Amino acid sequence: MRRRPQLEEQQAIRFHKSLQAAQSDLGIVLSGGGVRAAYQAGALKALAQVLEKDLSLTSVVLGSSIGAINGLVLSACLKNGITHAVMTLEEMWRERSFNNTFSGSRARAFVRALRIATKQYINPGPHSSNLAVFDPEPLRNRIDKELEKNGGLAPQNRAASLKAVGVMTTLEGATRKPLLFLSSHHTMTTEEMVGASFECCYVPELHAKHGFASAALPSLLPPVEIDTGAGTVRLVDGGISQNIPVDPAVRLGAHRIIVIDISGRSWWFDRYGEPHDTRPTWEVPAGDDTFCMRPPETLTIKPSAALGPLLKQAVGNNRKRFMDSCGALWPFFAIVKNKLGEDLAYEVLSYVALDSEYLNALLEVGYHDTVAILRQRAHKPFRENESEITAALAIQPVRA
How far is Cα of residue 395 from the mean position of the Cα atoms in its chain? Predict the structure, then answer.
């Protein structure tokens, strides 16, 4: 990936869209991070109190991995108000358990997990495989029903202000490539796609299958095949390509962006003393002729602390509850504990554990973290009009 000029007065490329906050759209970008997605619902609940007075600011919603699923539900519900949208997300996450999220026998899932763990030990990384521990059919059906209940995601049926909704996936093949499924009022021009590391597949309407294609982490969830019109493609987790798809959001015209990052990536880098721009070897590398667009204003919301302690507090003193929360993966807690220690074992399982008390805690922490950030940025709990909303979201731009 090429470095581009970073001085404010120096343009990297010509891009004929306004960079003025008062004249540009607002985008919401949701990262992947497993069941930590409940944190995103809590964060959006806090943001709703800032944004509900002017929903027309929100024009782009993009997500990757589980953030893509949250993004689809949020987008479908927005036409009934952001409060309704976040209440729907909150309800969806409060009701989650292994029984209503995954299908099949836990015993068989455990056998599959052992087979996959053996392969991963020999050759670590999210490698292509038809074998997956879990089948998310119950949750996929739940998402489809929620989208249908709210009118679906065809442009004419969603909120009038919502110009683009998209999910980032990874195209499987000889070489993995990022592929953005996009339902948009506008097809990006050649100029707008200059330097992009991803390709676009425009669809008239997004469905749950697109979200689960983005969330199909190899070995845990099965790959998803989708007919693109140009042929059937095999797709896996979008987090392998772009876990925080800010760049496509900017190219779609969102120059003020709210990122809700549940990956925990910076926490893990700090834990092991790694630079924050470190990329795992299994991530799809960006090409030398690509670069990322940066928004003039970015508000990043992420957990203020490790989330493993929340899981430990919820299930640590109840073996049956712990086993129920982790399903077929619970025996691996001991393996991780022996290798990394108990605290890190809980942190690892904080991405997969489905326990009601833990999910409620994630919702609460997401809400309170976001309120604290808004207060710090705006110096007031909540803003009352458009100019104050703009001020609440106006922080320094981040580098690409």
Answer: 22
Report the C-alpha gap between 237 and 32 in whole angstroms.
9
Closest to 57 measured CA to CA, from 188, 179, 160, 147: 160
Selection from 112, 108, 107 nearest residue 131 by Cα: 112
pLDDT tens-digit map of 8-30: 444 444 444 544 444 568 899 99
Integer CA distances (angstroms), 44 to 139, 208, 255, 347, in order: 21, 20, 19, 23
d(CA 238, CA 180): 9
**Whether this model's pTM surpasses 0.90:** no
The C-alpha atoms of residue 340 and residue 362 are separated, in whole angstroms, by 23
CA distance 198 to 64: 13
**203-238 pLDDT, tens digit each:** 999 999 999 999 999 888 999 999 988 889 999 999
Q: How far apart are CA 379 and CA 391, in angstroms?
A: 10
Rounded to whole angstroms, how far apart are CA atoms 233 and 223? 10
CA gap 334, 348 in Å, rounded? 12
Parts of the chain with a pLDDT under 70? 1-24, 53-56, 106-129, 378-400
What residues have CB less than 8 Å from 121, skipping those under 6 apart? none
